[in-house]
Protein 1
Amino acid sequence: MSKKYNVAIVGASGAVGREFLRLLHQRDFPIASLRLFGSERSAGKKIIFRDSEIEIELLKEGDDFKDIDIAFTSAGAGVSKKFADTITRHGAVMIDNSSAFRMDEDVPLVVPEVNGEDAKHRPRGIIGNPNCTTIQMLVAVNPIYKISPILKIRVSTYQSASGAGASAMAELEKQISQYASGSPLTVEKFPHQLLLNLIPQVDIFLDNDYTKEEMKMYNETRKILHDDRIEVSATCVRVPVLRAHSEAIWVETESPVDISDVRRAMESAEGVVLADNPAEALYPMPFAAAGSDPVFVGRLRKDIASPTGITLWTVGDQIRKGAALNAVQIAEYLIRQKNI
Amino acid sequence: MSKKYNVAIVGASGAVGREFLRLLHQRDFPIASLRLFGSERSAGKKIIFRDSEIEIELLKEGDDFKDIDIAFTSAGAGVSKKFADTITRHGAVMIDNSSAFRMDEDVPLVVPEVNGEDAKHRPRGIIGNPNCTTIQMLVAVNPIYKISPILKIRVSTYQSASGAGASAMAELEKQISQYASGSPLTVEKFPHQLLLNLIPQVDIFLDNDYTKEEMKMYNETRKILHDDRIEVSATCVRVPVLRAHSEAIWVETESPVDISDVRRAMESAEGVVLADNPAEALYPMPFAAAGSDPVFVGRLRKDIASPTGITLWTVGDQIRKGAALNAVQIAEYLIRQKNI
């Protein structure tokens, strides 16, 4: 009988936390025991998993993680920083969905299809799960990168409400009801109304007038690809969509690449579904991609502004591949590699 | 007393046609007489303009345009082609919002802030009004172009429902009501549901896997700027927004340009409003720009992927500057230049 693992989810009641539960079930993750942790607000609530009811325990300092093998954490950077020692002290592998440790040198940052092997070297017992927009972009462009190194990426995002959590999704749905009934719209989760609008700001602004979200795409890409030559200029925009992110991407490669080679590479690439048939109006859309696992790629064509350019459109479920699924896949990779 | 003009609007009952009426009134256009034309479906309907009621006349071959000085046409490329001779035969200047003649060598294609003087040379009496996405992009990047020629543009669009007409806007609003009441959504005006979705296709696909809309941005830009070096790679996406288009733009200039020089140029550029203050979460948004005249520019910064690159975000009302306003401004330019 193959090995089973004691698993913990920290932030179990959030949008990503709930997705962890669905994924562990759907993917038949080898669970020996499952414990759920949360803040004072969610502690005591009960969640059904398979045939049993599990109570969310209060996350606190102490020895609660003594027997845990794998902890999936998604409760914000502050919580991850505060409890990293508590979680990892007795040997649990912490796969962290927050931005707390992503750029730390002694924490690998992993997209399994791109740099799975990095997960094996984790001196602090922590593995970083990259930002959703980075994961999706790298899964989509990695097949090109394998043909020729990519030197530049320009990317504009069309990010769904889910990136700001379950309550942000609920607010967008509420705005629909309010708009339909002619009531004033509730605007709390975003700086501005999202329904029938676009907000060209995700996360806070930095000194170079890029947002933190945009610079994550720059910095995380270089770390994951181990490539300090690649430069990423991103414009991140929130759009009135519930849970799948889309990205329009231009890459410039070191050597010219043939578009038919890229197409072939996409067709066989792990984690990618090529949905690209202009003749039949087939291309990825967030409405269709919500709730599914792959990174969908379409609108694949030469960049007519550059002899070494390729442009494409990608859509992926932000809560799945953009967060929970990628973290679970990191754990599955370690299990396959007998590294845990 | 300054000269007044006999004006005609063809396609008076459409979204752009109605905007012509509002603009002619608001801008106090020097009208001697105003006649409205439409298809059999709208002929006979009456429209209030200032203090009088004007009946929409059936557009037909004949001498109806004998005394017209300026005809604003916005009834689709088929109608423009069929009736161009009827409209211009007796000397009327036809300012055409359709794509019918835009790329014809003997038809100038004009954005007044960029190439107003081209409007003076119109051997066929026709002046083309560019596509909405091109107008907005060129007003936004022209201040940069004046500092150094632009060699490359990558642009992704976030196009509102209005680009597909008044009935498409109505369908998006209907989808909101239907979603709120749990009813199935009506999907007729676009190939897919637009509410809570994105459709990465505007207009039909061409042989190079770009859409016609995307290639308009390439071809019209070169024509308007009289520059065959500039190359534009566009990804055009329909978003669930009512009437303002947004664009994320990356330009590469021939010589490096200083971002503070660009900022100063934007501040004084005709037709541009710079709305760019990250510290106060100030940037252009379609919700705020709907119904107003300028092209709003924000998120202005260095392209960190290129030493000669600038990136920016622009929002403009598609029915105004993207269509009716630009056409009226062409006429106003000719009047100021005493060229009509």
Note: Chain B touches chain A through 59 residues (CB under 8 Å).
Protein 2
Amino acid sequence: LPGPLVISLLTDYGLVDGFVGALHSVVRRAVPSAPIIDLTHLVTPQDVRAGSMALARAAPYLAPGVVVAVVDPGVGSERRGVAVQAVGGPAPGITFIGPDNGLLPPAVDLLGGAGTCVELEDRGYWLAALGPTFAGRDIFAPAAALLARGADISDLGRPIAAETLERLPAPVCRRLADGSVEAEITWVDHFGNVQLAAGPGDLGANLRTSHLLSLAAHGAALGSARLVRTFSDLAPQELGLLVDSYGQLAICLNGASAAAHLGVLEGDLVVVSNPAPSR
Amino acid sequence: LPGPLVISLLTDYGLVDGFVGALHSVVRRAVPSAPIIDLTHLVTPQDVRAGSMALARAAPYLAPGVVVAVVDPGVGSERRGVAVQAVGGPAPGITFIGPDNGLLPPAVDLLGGAGTCVELEDRGYWLAALGPTFAGRDIFAPAAALLARGADISDLGRPIAAETLERLPAPVCRRLADGSVEAEITWVDHFGNVQLAAGPGDLGANLRTSHLLSLAAHGAALGSARLVRTFSDLAPQELGLLVDSYGQLAICLNGASAAAHLGVLEGDLVVVSNPAPSR
Amino acid sequence: LPGPLVISLLTDYGLVDGFVGALHSVVRRAVPSAPIIDLTHLVTPQDVRAGSMALARAAPYLAPGVVVAVVDPGVGSERRGVAVQAVGGPAPGITFIGPDNGLLPPAVDLLGGAGTCVELEDRGYWLAALGPTFAGRDIFAPAAALLARGADISDLGRPIAAETLERLPAPVCRRLADGSVEAEITWVDHFGNVQLAAGPGDLGANLRTSHLLSLAAHGAALGSARLVRTFSDLAPQELGLLVDSYGQLAICLNGASAAAHLGVLEGDLVVVSNPAPSR
């Protein structure tokens, strides 16, 4: 017996204003006991690309049901609201609801790609909006609530082709002429770990734990980092590189913030070189 | 068949200390599966008026059930704890529980006004308190849990008259001699939008989209703002005025914080003038 | 009829990254309707002792079920993951899951001490981890989900002796030669109240409300504080000492932050003297 659909939420709404509470309220007016998960509401305001990466990190672990994702600088404009059903993933048929601005596709891709897609243009389930600037409360949450009550994605609006969904540039990860790898910083987490848009495979096959790699950013050396398994393998203040819990390479320190230590930010490019093979 | 009562929470407890977790725990010890909504817990500490306005914004969307609201500088003193049942609203019989210090009435008013009101003086359901400074955990959450288990509001204490509830001054909104409108800033949201205590009707009937209005605060001009439908109607750095998702006028920028740009704060008074008709 | 097990979470994960959402998702993939409580996720990063004290404050109010607590600088190392069943407490059999680094024992002690303890070494329920640094998602949450589905603690791994669990030093509270009490600051809360590792009994039996006590820290006088029942008993800027909602002594102001006023921090030692009896 399948359980109720879980409604997972990811936004840039912040936690101060009651915007998140409004989403919960709208869902629970329709389905009082609906299980709701707050994936995060602290995406950098209006940073659609950061939101798309946060959603992609969450994707492989999502509970079966509906995901409402909102980072939406174009709210109230002609940009479409969409629902996109993933083909595969941890549970079949997870449906993503949000603006058509590039936010959803990276997560959908990780769950087998897009199956049925619709534009949320059936105003029958929209809330009567006093102003057009809170689509999360007035359109997306009601759409999710409708699915939670058993509706089909096709009840939300007219079908659209998955190929018409907006997409944003993927994070940079490329091999340079000297064999080193240049990778974008995709994420600086709460602990100051610096995730790169590169996995261990991008560094070549001859890497072993304890191998030393050189790091550079903005044309300046950041120092060398030791390839380790976990934080506590590092001495205090020793820079490390590990495969993080999302399978990506991350620069880290033991018990301190690597991002603060290095002075790097999300979006910066880091060059990782393997001194041994390159000499 | 009605679902279970939803318990909605709004406090100034912050998210660091475990105060919110204590409310959830107390409710769930009585009703493990109770649906709980965190409306917000980041009301400015001890700012009862800000809390009352946040609660009023949430009111029209509340799920049927009980609202526990706590911004309570007088905790442990002679101020009363009360439960107030709203007469109307999105779902009948929503009951507000909290301190009698002005926090609840604006939300109750929006839901048709107060029906039955009681003082929470029946100590039978109170938790044995080690100190008197956490009424949310020791009195209000147990009262909500009792209602969630099917009790009637009259089980919480003796009836009191709605007219005896404390009230705070309403936000300022007045027409000046020159026909302009002076309105209090009721809210600066996460994105820096500046909500005024004025709706579109307060500006007069002759307004059209793209109309330019003059803004001033503290006796100094803030610039002119264009009346728009949504953020993306504005050019970069162009000041706008729109009807926000709560039906109020709000000063905004496209993709930036109007509050930071203008240097204004909640509680400031803004004068909005309509240059054309006034000349 | 007992309700479903409640899963309570306490971590230092922060609210920005989606770490908390991942825990919820993992639990809800196993039990979609599982009641989940976020006790707090804003423990100071990697501060195991602060986390252990926050967990102990939550302990007497916990809902029946499972507590997943994670403050885990040693994640991925040889430190054990454990599940510890409390003997007593508000509900029998509350089970704590987390790293064996001192985080859990103070809370377990408050609930009657440890009964069955196991090491989480049965990899059958672990998630396939891409890297070893997110035990909360990959080991602890799956263990909690297993219990929520009806498994017994013995299904999680092999029994270990409670005496082998790591423990951290208790907060300092001692009587000095001159009869004054030196107590560690165990907590500065959201409102700036300063909780001490001393209860009213530690100050001696002859205390009455309105009694004046002298406070000192770092060898310097902080001023005198009046023993009061609640905040509003104090005049503006008058320093007070009250029995807080956890039964501990706390230094406070009325409507302001005592910690900011005094310039003290968690971990500082405060000397409380009773001038009358000592002269």
Note: The first strand of chain A starts at residue 6 and ends at 11.
